[in-house]
Design goal:
The protein is an all-alpha fold and 301 residues long. The chain has 15 helices and no strands.
Length: 301
């Protein structure tokens, strides 16, 4: 009886040892291949090269004023008060509020306009569709700098200079074409049958868009959102031209005020730069996966 019980157990143990997982577990672990080590070393080296300027920026932001010309890489002591001084002794707080309003306002306006335009373009084969997409692409060829004189004159006549809403309109206009292009490609990759099945169950066209298409197109929406937000956050030329009052200027223009005719306040300049990049870095880190999936939209059918 014991022999009969032991036989199936032995066969079961032998079968378990023959599975791929068991064979992989029984193999001795090998170290990384030389090719893997080389690739990893090159990747770390490239990462260090790209991160060194940011490290230098943070270190300079923490340097005392009397150590800015010292040849040493690290200061003798870190002046954390530089961040407090740059916040209280300049218009950086007001500039940050203007930049937040411009970036979020431009992003919201772009999404409100680009989503219906991209949905209609992706779902409807109307006459002049290709011409519309071509015109959208052509608008990307115009740089804001080439239109500044006309924009300044127009907003001057309407009395809209030194207003954050003026920058919202300009940034939204120059980022709208990219949002329409990427959302058209992403919505076009979503099967129409999903919307049709939802409308059979009683959904309207708007309901199908909101409940079915929009959740599936979320990576593309996030990609358009983050690119519009970063473009509006980093914009400089329009903010410098259309805003002449220090309190109404965006953060990029406010940081430029630390560069004088004869001296440059490097510690305050880099402290303001650190403050300026932190929100964008945090936002991009939170939705980086959505951005990557949105960029590859339509590449695989």
């Amino acid at each position: 009886m014991a022999q009969q019980t032991a036989a199936p157990a032995a066969r079961t143990a032998a079968a378990n040892r023959s599975t791929p997982k068991a064979r992989a577990a029984s193999r001795p672990r090998r170290g990384p291949r030389p090719r893997t080590l080389v690739i990893a070393s090159v990747a770390w080296l490239l990462a260090a090269v790209f991160l060194l300027p940011y490290a230098e920026m943070v270190i300079t932001a923490l340097r005392p004023a009397d150590e800015l010309r010292d040849p040493s890489y690290l200061p003798d002591h870190f002046a954390w008060s530089n961040f407090i001084d740059v916040w209280h002794e300049s218009n950086l707080g007001a500039n940050l509020r203007v930049t937040l309003l411009v970036a979020f306002g431009s992003t919201l306006l772009v999404l409100l306009v680009a989503l219906p335009a991209a949905y209609y373009t992706a779902r409807t084969r109307y006459r002049g569709r290709k011409l519309f997409l071509l015109l959208v692409l052509v608008t990307q060829m115009f740089q804001p700098t080439s239109l500044l004189v006309g924009l300044y004159r127009e907003f001057y006549q309407f009395g809209m200079l030194n207003s954050a809403w003026t920058l919202v309109l300009c940034n939204a206009a120059f980022n709208l074409a990219f949002a329409i292009w990427i959302l058209t490609a992403y919505i076009g990759s979503i099967p129409v049958a999903l919307e049709e099945s939802g409308m059979i169950d009683g959904l309207s066209r708007v309901g199908a868009l909101v409940r079915i298409t929009l959740p599936l197109a979320l990576p593309g929406v996030v990609t358009a959102m983050i690119f519009t937000f970063i473009a509006a956050w980093n914009e400089f030329v329009m903010g410098l031209t259309l805003s002449t009052v220090p309190e109404s200027q965006p953060l990029t223009v406010g940081i430029n005020s630390f560069i004088g005719n004869y001296t440059v306040q490097w510690n305050y300049l880099f402290a303001g730069s650190v403050i300026a990049i932190v929100p964008v870095v945090v936002l991009f880190a939170l939705i980086e996966r959505k951005v990557v999936s949105g960029l590859t939209a339509g590449s695989v059918k």
